[in-house]
Amino acid sequence: MTAAELLQLQSWNRTQTDYPHDQTQVAKTPDNLALVFESHGLTYQQLNQKANQLAHYLIQNHQIQPDTLIGICVELYLEMIISLLAILKAGGAYLPIDPNYLGDRIGFMLQDSGTSVLLD
């Protein structure tokens, strides 16, 4: 890679920006639908409340620290999105696990990854 190409690449990668915290979808449009799955839906406010509730539970009951790996093994779309947001809000990282895997496979994945918490 030439020096000019490297400078161009570095220029393209300068994407740091400050995002206003008071202009989230929850703050702007709390009653708008955020998710719909089959006949169920959640507004931005409901999604945020459910994710915050689960995040607080994870922090208080499982002592989640930044980058703690949490397994997630759910089929239902709404619960999956709530769980993913909660894990990220708690500062954790998630390990997606297919609920169709056999118990032995899931056990191996949890042991191999060092995951101590599984949301299912």
Describe the structure.
The radius of gyration is 19 Å and the shape is extended. α3 crosses α4. The mean pLDDT is 89. Helix content is 48%, strand content 17%. The protein is built from 5 helices and 5 strands, in the order ααββαβαβαβ. It has 120 residues and is α/β, with parallel strands linked by helices. The strands form 2 sheets. It has a 3-stranded parallel beta sheet with strand order 4-3-5, with helices on one face. The chain has a two-stranded antiparallel ribbon with strand order 1-2. The longest helix has 19 residues. The chain has a domain of 83 residues: Rossmann fold (3-Layer(aba) Sandwich), CATH 3.40.50.980. A hairpin with a 2-residue loop joins β1 and β2.
Summarize the structure.
The protein is α/β, with parallel strands linked by helices.
Give the helices and strands, then pairings.
Elements: H1 3-12, H2 25-28, E1 33-37, E2 40-43, H3 44-62, E3 69-72, H4 77-89, E4 93-96, H5 103-113, E5 117-119
Helix pairs in contact: 3-4
Keywords:
two-stranded antiparallel ribbon; alpha/beta; 120 residues; 5 helices; single chain; Rossmann fold
- The overall pLDDT, averaged over residues, is 89
Order of adjacent strands in the largest pleated sheet: 4-3-5
What percent of residues adopt helix (DSSP H or I)? 40-55%
CATH class of the domain at 37-119, named Alpha Beta
Shape: extended
Structural class by sheet pairing and helices: alpha/beta
Number of helices: 5
Low-confidence stretches: none
What's the main sheet like?
A: 3 strands, parallel
